[in-house]
Amino acid sequence: LTFKNCKKEEKADREFQKKFKFEGSINVLTQMMVDPAATEKRGGGKNLPLRRGEILDVIQFTNQEQILCRNSQRRYGYVPRAVMLHL
């Protein structure tokens, strides 16, 4: 990981914390997979795009309906709990 990447990641994390009013450190609780049978959706607002079979980092189990996740492009957003599978 280069210094430049590190700075970019820190910036992405700060923006996420501001946008989602997320306080404290960002910890990955677990990883889950988007159901390969799920309908793919373009993200928008605070929702992550859904890609079948994608492995996401779980940051927070927000509520019964959604989970706050981070994808491999280091984008953050909500994903419907219904489409997430435990690895």
From TrEMBL:
SUPFAM superfamilies: SH3-domain (SSF50044). GO terms for cellular component: plasma membrane. It comes from the Eukaryota. Residues 16-85 form the Helically-extended SH3 domain. It holds the Pfam family hSH3. Keywords: Phosphoprotein. InterPro entries: FYB1/2-like (IPR043443), hSH3 (IPR029294), SH3-like_dom_sf (IPR036028). One of its GO terms (biological process) is protein localization to plasma membrane. PANTHER family: PML-RARA-REGULATED ADAPTER MOLECULE 1 (PTHR16830:SF11), SH2 CONTAINING ADAPTOR PRAM-1 RELATED (PTHR16830). This is PRAM protein. The gene is Pram1.
